[in-house]
## 1
Amino acid sequence: MPSKSVMSDIRELRVLVRTFGQPAAKQKLALVHRLRRRKILRPSELRAYHDLLCFMVAYPDNAALLSLVERELRSMVNRVRLYRALTRDRQAGKLDDSGMAGTTTTHPYSYELTVQLLENHAARMEMDGEAGEKAADEVLPDFLPSLVAWQENDALDYDEERTVAEWLTTVRRSKDGGMLKTLVDLLARADLPHLVRRHFFERLDIETVWHLEDSRASRTLQRVRCGKPFYQTEPMIGRSKDLRGDLRRSAARLQAQSAKRGAECVRAVNEVLAVRNRELFPLTLASPGEVYRCDVGRGLTMFLFGMRPEDRLPIESNFGALLVRNNLPIGYGVAAVLFDRVEIAINIFPAFRAGESAFTIEQYFRLFYRHFGSRIFLVRNTQMGYGEDEALLSGAFWFYNKLGFRAVDPAVRKLAEREAEKQRADRKYRTPLATMRRLSVSDVVLLTDGSRIEDWKETSIINLGYTVTRYFADNYDGDRRTGIADTVPKVQKLLGIRDLRRWTDDERTALSRMAPLVAMIPDLRSWTSEERKQLGQIVRAKGGKHERRFVLLCNRHPRFKDAVRRLAARQTSR
């Protein structure tokens, strides 16, 4: 009798991974042992096997299976090398950008993320060949004079035989990172504002090539140690039947991490995204000084990151999250908080979506409900699949709909109600793709206090930006420097801020950034001295170590919230 093919073993394992109990665990163990002895030379099979192994790390039946699976993942780099040797794909190009150990990923990372990655992976990172040299020769000359000593410009201006790319090879301290590290070092040491460095780097449009080999940053080997594993001995739990009620239940403690542990977590989350060719600024610009850990149970740990004070938003507060199950990263999230409204997004990586995704998402919501005072949960249409078929086909709209979210757009709400009626009448009915696209055009919102969605209106931060533009135009003829210099002492006096010498540089920056908006509050002088004092504390907290404190103070100041809402509405009416 012919032996089973590799793909048939993988298919059998794919069916089994979501089943738990002793019989299923024994079958999984036998299948993995069988696959260990097989050569896997098709890229699709290597990827599939790799992701099933990762799933079993996140959802292991027992210690024996977890140990075996981890050994298999540690040997994955050897499988990739064997694949290279025994196929015509000598560079493993068909596995590129998979994030697997032994492969290569190529992506135009931002300046900030490139700096972070080079600190630990310079020897394995380089510019993308000809494209990098072309960028160096065609774009770099425009701003290289700003990066070098004045005398060096003579060589750059008059040497017609040597290219800029060749010149860069003469200034390297070492070969680690090659031309990429040399260029980043030049930028980092230049006497230029940080935003200018970022702009220069973006102009170069550099594609970074990262040879992962056996790097612990790879999807295969990245682990964020959180404690003992959780063994899945019973069926996975599904979606909440009463999300509003579940949010009100007590939540796991939010634990502030030390600066050292915070730095380790910031490094980890950015590696997790980078190997997947993703980048999110709340995480790229995360502050090691504001990292929280929340152990929610069932092997799930959430790390929450505040942003560096110098990069924070004007009045919203951005946070990022890394989701870890059994020490293995399974997803990430971002959240923009404005008073009790949180605009929230979460992404479970494809390899883990067959697991307890609903539980994970609900715990993420509860974290903000219990620890940030969030009562309005807003999810943008892009998460519903607007302009992006992956989320559309995954049924994201109906997932959120069944949790109690409703479309902000009245027309979409009516369409959803009609589609829900069809589903109740016929269990086999599936909403057509064209209709799903119509459903995805609207943001969705969950109002946890039970208020009517028809009565809710989002406070527009766009309008708040325009109010400040109009403030400078009307009062200072567009001269922002003079306007800020004039406004800060006025606001300082109104808020009863006596001695700025006791404030940090970041806190004083927050005051200068928020002062124009505060100055526009029409009835600020009529507020009680205590209300104005509390607003001063809010402004200071915006530049403080923990931006979460800013969020909590804002939620305790209903008069400030109402003032901001009115300013946004006033701009709309013009």
Note: The two ends are 80 Å apart (CA to CA).
## 2
Amino acid sequence: MRGFRVRSDRRAKVAYDPVKRPPFDPKRAKGSLFEGSLFDPTPASPATPGEGAGSGASRSEPVPARKSDDGARATDARPSAPASAAPAPIPAPTPALEPAPKSAPAAARAAELTVTAFNELVARTLEDHMRGQFRVAGEITNLSRKGHWYFSVKDARAVLSCVMWQSDAARVAFTPKEGDAVVVTGKIGHYAPHGKTQLYATRLEPQGVGALELEFQRLVKELREKGYFADERKKPLPPHPRRVAVVTSRTGAALQDVLKTARERRAGVEFLVVDVRVQGDGAADEVARALRSLDRRALELELDAVIVTRGGGSREDLWAFNERVVADAAFALRVPLVAAIGHEVDTSIIELVADRRASTPTQAVMLLLPDTTALVERTERAARDLRNAARWSLQARRDEVARLERRHAQASPALRVARIRAGVERASGALRDAMGARLRSERAVLDRLAARLASQAPAARAAAARAAVVALGPRLARAVRGRLATQRTTLLHLERRLRSAGPEETLARGYAIVTTAGGGLVRSTDDARVGERVEIVVSDGSIGARVESTQPIDGGEGASISKSREEKSPRGSSSGKSGGQSRS
């Protein structure tokens, strides 16, 4: 494990070191503030590079093993519990070529084969000596279900690549996922173009949760009960860190993401990079030793925060960050810790223990470092608020000084006398104004009473009566004239009605009144006898006559009419065309 210092505004130039590093020894640490290196880089004996674990890649052919963050081919993570079932025993293949005698020359001891011929030889050997179906139990990893299924099954010590064609995968009764313990049934084969031995699965059966998942759940439950994940123990992040330690692989992409984001957000922050292995055997111990060393030297190094990060990978690739030793070291760290392990869907124990969890290395830096633009805006806003506050405070002080000056001036005897004199003058003016207003009001009342008294004097009342008489004379004359005209009109109207109802009008129309010698009216033929003398009255005089004959009207209708009119008319009155009348 090595450490070096790099500022966020400068690119760190590091190279991959394939030499295995010795265990951490605090006594061999040297340099203040990571001058040169944090740990003694004296190499131990070279180690044999780990073998890569293959996994499915494409729809038609297997994919090479996935690379780790530090550029090396990924090795299987050491689980803390064995797989649920042991793999079926596999008979050892018989070599196809006889080994050459030891005494033979080097050129004759082994036949020269091309890579294609050798891979075909291996394939034929497997087909000849490992025929039939095999049942292999293990834990699923590196699962890819795009048409055909490519995955691997593993136990505590080995990994076997598998492929299941789409027609066989359609018959699987469950949906497999990472970490499931399964039993795979199929034939062994060797893919010559890639030199890859794999199991061609025809059947897949579930066996429950895998060993790594069980260990993860057990450790999570244990640490939660001990308070490792409690929110109240987590420390707040520093608002403006100046020095941050990054625990990761110096050749991984995660470190470059951290430094790039730091340069973009806030240049000038110093990053102390602690180079550790992030997967494989011994990775958990290196991470734990790095965290403990940073915790001891936090004051000396003036650390404000620590970032532990690496890129994505499978559960076994990230298992180093699920070890108990790493969780203990993260829990004991007194400096705020930000953990960003894998992708958003990946969850590791160190992320649960850390003070803040980030989904990516970039987000980890964004959580720690405020944006420079935001800081500038906040600073400008604070300066503006400070200027306003200073201006308001200065104005308040000026107002206070002016008020004190006024109070001091008001405390002098001459000013008090002047203030009292001014008050007396104001009171005198107000009194004068009040008295004038009162006199004007009383004078107005007296004037109204005098006018009323003058109006009630006898001479005034007599003058008013004379004026009323004078004014009412014309009105009386007009009223009398109007009344006389009205009465005259009424009299004329009555006269016309009387004339229209009297006999004169009837006689003027040609009628006559016939009376007997005794003065009785002749209303019927019975009232006049033949030879009797009668008098006929017309409109302009009377005529003497004698009755020569009487002739009633035929049908008696005239008689009945005459009788009817006689009953209606009073005795002695005239009626038109009655039996007592005749034409002159």
Note: Residues 6-108, 556-584 have pLDDT under 50 and may be disordered.
## 3
Amino acid sequence: MAAPIDSDQAYDELLLQRAREAAERWDARSQVRDARTAAVEAGKPLQADSPARLALRVNYLIDDIRRTSQGERPPSSPLLKELIASPDPVAPEDLNDRLVNEVVMGARDFLSIEFLQRGLASARSVGRVVVKASSGVRELATGFLIGPGLMLTNKHVLDTADTAAACGVEMDYEHSAYGPAKTPQVFWFEPERFFVADDKLDYALVAVAPRSVRDAPLSRYGWLPLHQAQGKIAINGNDYLNIIQHPLGRPKEVVLRENRVLDLRTGDEKDANDAMGPFIHYEADTEKGSSGSPVLNDQWDVVALHHSGVPARDANRNWLNKDGGIWHQGDPVASIQWVANEGIRVSSLIGALSGLKVSGDALALLKETLAAKEPDPPAAEPPTPENIQPEPKPKPTTKVSPKESIVDVVVDPVRSAGARTLSVDIPIRVTVSIGDVAAATTARVEAASAAPESLRSELVVERINPADYADRDGYDRKFLGVEVPLPTIKRRPRFGRLLRVPRKARPDDTYELRYHHFSVLMNADRRLAYVSACNVDFDAAAQASRKEGGGSWRLDPRLDDDQQLDNEYYKGKDNLYDRGHLTRRDDAAWGADDAAAIAANKDSFHYTNSAPQHYLLNQSNEFTGANLDLWGDLENYITEQGNAQRTRLSVFNGPVFGTNDKPLKDALVPLAFFKIVIWRDGNADPGAIGFVLDQADLVRDLAVEAINPGRFEIRQRRIADIEKSLDISFGPVSGWDVLRETVTEEAFSDRGITIRRTADIRLPS
């Protein structure tokens, strides 16, 4: 496998080499560029660009205004009106500075809503190039579709076919505060069907799989055709560029307008240094990760392929960082200060692609791409569990008693038409009417409008909003009468970023998802909880049984759908994963009365509180014959061994993320889970104990025909040792660990003590 796959350093060196080359071109063109900049600032476009190119640009803009206005909304400029009405194109000899400026400025100000519509249509064809990594996928750069099934990016991103084979493009990785949130779709590259990379022009073109790992069609994203037409851009202070990109791997962003061309080869440079060749220099805010982005004009035509920044330098030619200091070799590439950007012009790319010698299916792909045919508008797709999202702004609702049934419902019209069944996925509140369906009156079913009429009349649906969670107090830090803080994320996490909550139920809940009696901190990259922290009260006035208020899993509306692993990861007859509770339902299902206990039980059924676990972990006694109910018996035993005051526990549960976790679609399944239990006897210092449940042997051979379930094991381990393998810190809890007193160093290994029965648990005597 190529080096960039395994090493950021190798990829960064390729990027830095492009930056060095761009800096050389920047230096060689300093006099030409300075003269053009002065002409632009003086309002003299004919001194900044050639008359022939400016005439092409003017005619291009006039034609575009004709098309968009359709005679219904003429521009306010009398000169522009006259040019639009004239059947003759503007010739180079007809130009003067006033005409050029008025046409360019008139076109700039003559923007209908179509400008935004075109921009959105263009943005859907841009994706984030990702590479397969041990933790799932890792962001690499940007790319965009230029034809049916072909994606364009830089050669320094995909330098070889082997590199491309380990990569893909992630579409719809973007934030959306309005309308349904989008679920990112990863499409793997297929270089065996088509791959070409050119070092001189720093481009790579690769075939993309027709369907994503979630089975979404690539065709829904269209493409940005490469047009041979001249006049797409000019050197003019009022002629703008737009860039759609994934800088530093962030969700899709757009650098919109106010970005102008600084320099390009104009064709009439008799004495000027012709170092520019196929390149173009322009202003724009870009960063590492922007490589491979499309550079577009205000008509959303591709002008260039972005490939590098031009580094800012001091008088001694030292590269500068963003703080104004000297950037040194070995410093992060992301800290470099860029003074300008460089891209490869579309005309040069088309020329190179037209000369490729390919045959068969590859030739058919290339021909269709070079035909520059516009894609068909995207067809409207019916709502699916993966793209339905709660409204971003909550509507006032009537408070619902905890005794009312809260379930997650999505109607599958294909499955339910005959069987009258519902598939469970999205968060909505449902009141079910029992009785004669035929006699039912007004039917109100939101988010399930495709259901048969007989089903619609049975349901009255109200969507759950983030504001509905404002009454959840979450994990109580002082539940034991002493401060037991919520775990924190280490400064440099190895397995993912801490997720910032997009729609907070409370102003202070920047990262914490509060539920009844427990809280969750989410790993943004893994889409699973870092930790689920719970308070357990065995002496509460009411406890809900497993038959009261549970069973229906739901997405949390405070997060985007694609920020949590939903039912898609547990479906299928060959899928042996269960939704494993992190905070157990029995631990959370308590309260001052039955209604409160039932509501708390329901809260434990959020996907944020689950992780894929082998189904045998939920059938432990059948599997082991040891009468050990895993976590439940462990907690009960700890409680029973204490005095009467040990009826309250604080419990931390979560996955042990690792580099060898098991792939499941586009996610990774943790091979182990931790549990930390904290208690306090009277006024004594708190005590704590830690366990790790290992399911590695169970899941190692999943997704292959021969399943060998192997075994699982529970080990009691030092909390400090558990913490070493995690991205989270337990704070003072590690110091309360009873293993420090009960086991001598010589008799204890880092792997801990295997727990086969509750009597194996080490507690203070």
Note: The chain has a mean pLDDT of 79.
